[in-house]
Amino acid sequence: MGAATADFNVHTEALSGLLPVPAFRAVPFGIETLPLAGAVRPRHRHGAGYATVVLAGSFLETGFAGRLAVGPGDVLLHGTLDCHADRPLTRQRIEILRLPWHDDTLEGRFQVRDPDCLVRLAEHDPAAAALALGATLSACAQREVEWTHALARLLVGGSALPLARMAATWGLCPAELSRGFRCTFGVSPKRFRLEARARCAWRSVIGSPRSLTRIAQDHGFADLAHMSRSVREFTGIAPNRWRQAQRRGQQVRSS
User: Fold this and answer.
1) Are residues 155 and 133 in the same domain?
2) Which helix (H) or strand (E) holds 62?
3) Dihedral sign, Cα of residue 70, residue 71, residue 77, residue 78
4) Which of 54, 86, 199, 204 is most solvent-facing, going by the fewest CB within 10 Å?
């Protein structure tokens, strides 16, 4: 990770502390065994980024990284302001290890060869376990891509294609596309796209020197007021307040 990226992610972690607590779940680090009932989690939000190492069982997570089925040895990386839902894929107990994760440039499903080593490290030092995780991550082999995953990746990537044209790609009518996506992701494609765009804009607000008006243009918003409403609705805080907090943080770090 380069110095600029590291600096951005440390600053992002600090700024995430400004988020309204009721709207964003905190993440307890360490090992957790989930009962089947507790493994079903409707779409929810997390403020700070974190990593989930799967130790036992399998489940499906659907969020900004797409539709991801995971099992033992898999790792899910979540960036700041992630939104996702989870449900088990079998009746086997699910055991996971959660670790801090501060690199917003890496999200999605990865693998690790020795999860037990991470468990041993995390017992004494979760931060050290997170560093070891970052050093031993490997990409997952390509798995079958379901259409809802492909659609999610298009929406997160900023595709401006009308949903009707996307539906035709998979031989669906718009109503079938919206219904199938909502069933998997817990939110409509339109809402998913708006939240993904607001999240990307928020990252630019705190991570770049560009003006707020330019950021609104770059992310496809109608105008600054449109972006401000979207970012405030998604994060609970308006872009100008995020920018003020960013500048205060820069002053503290340079003093």
Assistant:
1) no
2) strand 59-63
3) positive
4) 204
The dihedral built from the CA positions of residue 102, 155, 45 and 214, taken in this order, carries a sign that is: positive
| 15 and 113 together in one domain | yes
Indicate the SS3 state at residue 253: helix
The answer to whether the pTM exceeds 0.85 is yes
Matching residue, tokens 């960013």: 246
C-beta of residue 36 within 8 angstroms of C-beta of residue 88: yes
Owner of token pair 């995953």: 149
CATH number at residue 152: 1.10.10.60
Amino acid found at 191: R
Partner residues linked to 97 by β-bridges: 31, 53
